[in-house]
Predict the 3D structure of the following.
Amino acid sequence: MSPPRMDRNFKKCFTDVAADGPPMDVIMFFQNRHNGKLDLWALPEEKRFRWWKAENEPIQLTAGPMDFQYPMPGKDNRQIFAIGTVRRAELVRYDQHSGQFLPYLSGISAEGLASSRDGQWVAYTSFPEGTLWRSKVDGTERRQLTFPPLRVFWPRWSPDGQQIAFSADLPGVARNVYLISSEGGTPKRVLASEQSQANASWSPDGNLLLVGTLFVPKAPIYTLDLRSQSVSAVAGSDGLFGPQWSPDGKFIAATTGVPGKLMLYDVSAQKWTEAFGSQVVYPTWSRDGKYIYFRHFRKQRDRGVESIARLRAERS
């Protein structure tokens, strides 16, 4: 096992002291994030403090399911105290008539909700585990589609409802885009690459996938033809994030950063135009393609833009 990278911001050392002599042993405790989880590790050190030697391998002390951080030794140096936390989310829907957020699917801890084109099914990832699930919109016929160590982000239904595209992390592998049957099975990586990929989006006919990149400066948005497996770059898309195809296939929405300006690409004219100049994240087309929903972080008046809801945690 290769040693984990230390979290330099939070490391605690203590010395085991003999009652009538000099220090005997020194142990460094630290927290390390691996596969999305924070665990505690110990690194024994010789009293000469040569901890960088290869033979001094770190020892994992915790293995979830909680996140553990801020380790501190007890007074007798025989115990370690740490803060353990379990991250949870609540799935909600916004009721425009009452202006309130209401629990959805019984308020399960999930994120990345996506609806099928016919409006009968939803896909989502459990939080914080990151496993992919699908169910009817009323929560029935619920089925788990992926399993650890695969960690899933941003599921998207194919137009015919037969497949779900998503991006996912695997230990030691760059984030890639995968396809899986909506009935379950083995996920298939669609575009093997060392570049980190994210935000897959289907063309209306289901033959093409838009694939964005992540953590790759000035990388373009790619179009993957699922029939021929050919790949091409979208003109002028270098450095853009989160591509989303409009339901009619005439436009592509993306942002200049996370957050960034909202940009629209006219597919026939092959031209990008700025649609909204504020700090935008998560652009999503309405089902009829007439609107784009997004979250933004600044008050800004702009013709044609309507504020729907304000999150409670945001400041006015």
